[in-house]
Design goal:
The chain is globular. The protein is 54% helix and 7% strand. By secondary structure, it is mainly α. 41% of the residues are buried. The structure holds tryptophanyl-5'AMP. The site of tryptophanyl-5'AMP (TYM) has 25 residues, from strand 1, helix 1 and helix 7.
């Protein structure tokens, strides 16, 4: 690998990706790949913190791998792998779990949210220790590759802070071992909100399918969802208190087209929400179309996808093992 800084990031294959995942994460990764050595991971071990149907998990993992490539990740130059195929993640995760405080994990808002949301549902019967210790596994994902930078959406910031704390704690206790990673949270689209409730994050686990756009939604469905998005009783396309729905659509439009918020306000001055939503819907359609075409092509060639993840696992293991060996030696495991 060239002497560039390293990026690691990952997405869970826990269902179809939303345009929030794409604009908040994947799209930025594709843009960063010239400047960095990149490791991108299908985080299937994270996905089983909620019980999965095995055949669906396999399908979702392969889908996600194909979407990474369709979104522009260059697998010749970078490492794209499936987490469960690199055993060092589980191995380092245990060591890190033994260095993570209960109090730190209890403070994680995602754990609090998920355990509350799931209680009373089927998933509520399985509020398991993995859901609780998940941030230590995520820290292992990052620290194994000595990542300099971790590009994520805003919802992952707290987990990243824990990864940094664990790196520093381990380095202080056992001597310099891990690079302390920096978060990279893009300003535009760091948090795409639900189209039906602009106060909550767009999420594929939302009960209302109109609240999210999936990367693989049929184009006319995606267009309809934009047109049905909640706005407000006013008529002006601008940001401000009470205009969160409009602002969310502006944010999506900005991320998709590269225009900034001021430009967008000017563009729609004197025009109503009908025009605005029509243009946003069009831009979303233009964004999804090439990704879907590439994805459909890739899914016709499963052998190629298998080659990609097999080669990816091999390269990832090589890097991960270097770090793991150091860690095992330092904590006192016989060599
Ligand atoms: P996950 O799978 O929930 O989400 C993947 C990425 O998408 C971003 N994202 C969003 N960005 C903007 N607006 C939204 N509405 C939105 N929803 C999701 C997330 O911030 C994330 O960047 N624990 C992680 C996966 C993970 C990981 C890692 C990430 C596992 N190991 C190591 C970084 C480094 C997760 O559940 O993301």
């Amino acid at each position: 690998m060239e002497n560039k800084k390293t990026i690691l990031s990952a997405i869970q294959p826990s269902g179809a990706l939303t345009i929030g995942n794409y604009l908040g994460a994947l799209k930025n990764w594709a843009a960063l790949q010239d400047e960095y050595n990149c490791c991108f991971c299908v985080a299937d071990m994270h996905a089983i913190t909620v019980r999965q149907v095995p055949a669906e998990l396999r399908k979702n993992s392969l889908d996600l791998l194909a979407l990474f490539i369709a979104a522009g990740i260059d697998v010749e130059k970078h490492i794209l792998f499936i987490q469960s195929q690199v055993p060092q993640h589980a191995q380092l995760s245990w060591v890190l779990t033994c260095n993570t405080y209960m109090g730190e994990l209890s403070r994680m808002t995602q754990f609090k949210d998920k355990s509350q949301r799931y209680s009373g549902s089927v998933a509520g019967e399985n509020i398991n220790a993995g859901l609780f210790t998940y941030p230590s596994l995520m820290a292992a994902d990052i620290l194994l590759y000595q990542a300099d930078l971790v590009p994520v959406g805003a919802d992952q910031k707290q987990h990243l802070e824990l990864a940094r704390d664990l790196a520093v704690r381990f380095n202080n206790a056992y001597s310099e071992t891990f690079k302390v990673p920096e978060p990279y949270i893009a300003k535009v689209a760091a948090r795409i909100m639900s189209l039906q409730d602009p106060f909550s994050k767009m999420s594929k686990s939302d009960d209302n399918a109109n609240s999210y756009i999936l990367l693989l939604d049929p184009i006319d469905t995606a267009v309809k969802k934009v047109k049905r998005a909640v706005t407000d009783s006013g008529a002006e396309v601008k940001r401000g208190e009470g205009k969160e729905g409009v602002e969310n659509l502006m944010n999506i439009y900005s991320a998709v087209t590269g225009k900034n918020m001021e430009e967008i306000e000017l563009e729609f001055e004197g025009k109503g929400y009908g025009d605005f939503k029509g243009t946003v819907a069009e831009s979303v359609a233009d964004c999804l179309r090439p990704i879907q075409e590439k994805y459909n092509d890739l899914m016709k060639n499963k052998d190629y996808l298998q080659e990609v993840y097999t080669a990816g696992a091999q390269k990832a293991q090589g890097l991960a093992n270097k770090t793991l060996r150091k860690v095992y030696k330092k904590v006192g495991f016989l060599q």
